[in-house]
Here is the input.
Amino acid sequence: MDIHPFPDIESLAVGAKMFVTIGIDFNETTQPASLDFMVDENTVNVNIKAPIGELLQPINIGEHDFISQQNKLKGLNENSVTSDVSKVCIEKGVANRIYEIANVAPVQGTVVDNQLLRFAAQSMSSKSLVLLTVRVLDNEKANITINCEKMVIGSMLLKEIKLVLAK
Here is the structure.
């Protein structure tokens, strides 16, 4: 994890404000960044955790490439679950819920019928593929499958998607 430095604030008058930008490269770690801020004689510890979906970068791939890569990322590289899907989620659109929590792109050439949805992304640092398939079933359920070389990213993303679809 790399934290890009920002300028020290030597002093700040009571009631005054100053804005600085803190850049954090999480390097695909799911651990929070821990920062210590010194205020007078006291130290304030702040933990910043990046949502797993923010560690991804959307990529554009076609359906043929998606299926080909998905076949390569089976076994330990595949996480799958059947999840509840709320009526609200179905009404607002499953894809919209996915976009709320993950930086993914829809797979080009996939038949859009709101029953089978495919998305693709890559991890920011290592550029590892992350492939997401959501098959919406008739009984307010969905099969969710994530194929990813990074097992921790795949399993954590699956948990977050399962939670957001049930809301």
The chain has a mean pLDDT of 89.
